[in-house]
Amino acid sequence: MKIVGLSGSIVGSKTRTAMNYTMQALEEKYPEIEAELIDLAEYDVQFSDGRNYLEYEGDTGYVTRAIMEADAIIIGTPIFQASIPATLKNIFDLLPVDALRDKVVSMVVTAGSAKHFLIAEQQLKPILGYMKAQIVQTYVFIEEEDFHRKKIINDDVLFRLERMVEDTVVLTETYQSIREAKEAEYDF
Hints:
The chain is of the alpha/beta class.
């Protein structure tokens, strides 16, 4: 199983901090899983121009292929101006419409206040559903007050991150078992 963590912004540190905690929880609890964190701040990703993702080279090609090859994706996103950042939306635009079919996707959302709690419900989940992802329904929402000096200081947030990691792995294993059973029926 391969799980990609995607830190979906090129500015700020809170989403990256939350993703570091998330990936650490994944690696500690499931060391057998291949895990990779892609922080968009570390890559020079081109804006989508409508090409097939396989035609992109360099960082853009690397990031899109890593996502396409993953069994599950944990998306970390900040909320800016009541929306997901353009850098994250660009990743979705680079991928084919059914890129997330048979992939489990979970979410970590960071925001300045509780006013942005429903952005994941109103913006991110519809995109993921359109791209046919199997969505882990409960996401982790982290507010500004839960951070201090690039650390998460709220134990409840840490507990919810660990739970989300478990749910992501269990759901991915479940869907893999279902697919294998279905494929076995066809005797290919």
